[in-house]
Amino acid sequence: MKIEQYCSVLLKDGRTACIVEVLSDTDFLADVGSSPEDWENIDVTINDIDRIISYIE
Questions:
Q1: pLDDT, tens digit only, all 57 positions of the chain
Q2: How far is the C-alpha of 13 from the C-alpha of 30, rounded, in Å?
Q3: CA 54 to CA 36: how far, in whole Å?
Q4: CA 38/CA 35 separation, integer angstroms
Q5: Is residue 8 classed as helix, strand or coil in its secondary structure?
Q6: Do the beta carbons of residue 48 and residue 27 sit within 8 Å?
Q7: 27 contact partners, CB below 8 Å, separation of at least 6
Q8: What is the DSSP letter of 48?
Q9: How far, in Å, CA of 48 to CA of 22, rounded?
């Protein structure tokens, strides 16, 4: 699975996240939340990701 910046991903805990920074092939920073008022920036590893939902082109 190739994770790129701004991909939307489904996490294994059921949350949807947007990858905001690719730190390595296995480590990422992502935003989770429903709007800018409640977004939280979290560390995500490749093992936390269930699947890619969409790519931003």
A1: 899 999 999 999 999 999 999 999 999 999 998 877 888 999 999 999 999 998 776
A2: 14
A3: 20
A4: 6
A5: strand
A6: no
A7: 43, 44, 45, 46
A8: G
A9: 14
